[in-house]
Amino acid sequence: MRRLLLILALLASPALAVQPDEVLDDPVLESRARELSEGLRCLVCRNENIDESNADLARDLRLAVRERLVAGDTDDEVIAYLVDRYGEYVLLRPTVTGANLILWLAGPAMLLGGAGIAVIALRRRPEGKRRDDALTPEEQARLDTLLKE
């Protein structure tokens, strides 16, 4: 039973595509590389980070991250290098500045605008006949004859 649970746990865990020849000897640098890789998108696989992707371009990106770290770059410099080279699309979490700010704010603004329009439309609609209005005697007589039939 324990073996089965172990096998299921291994199958359910995300498969990392990092090859043994890519792993840095310095555990601190390797840890930094893994943290950076979590936020970098594989340009082939779309919404998969480069550590989980088997694509050749993802391998190139992993190697570039490790090369920059070994060269002494800070985490921000490594990210800036990759963004300069591949564009902001390489980031799984885009920045909230510049033109992206419009995209970040457009959704909530449209939601609030739609809610405002709905409130105004509901307040301006004409009131119909209320349910508590009594029937006229003619209407009541007609209803009674219809119900008897």
TrEMBL record:
Residues 6-147 form the CcmH/CycL/Ccl2/NrfF N-terminal domain. Belongs to the CcmH/CycL/Ccl2/NrfF family. Keywords: Cytochrome c-type biogenesis, Heme, Iron, Membrane, Metal-binding, Signal, Transmembrane, Transmembrane helix. GO terms for molecular function: metal ion binding. GO terms for biological process: cytochrome complex assembly. This is Cytochrome c-type biogenesis protein. Residues 1-17 form the signal peptide. It comes from Palleronia marisminoris. The chain crosses the membrane at residues 101-122. InterPro entries: C-type_cytochrome_biogenesis, CcmH/CycL/Ccl2/NrfF_N, CcmH/CycL/NrfF/Ccl2_sf.
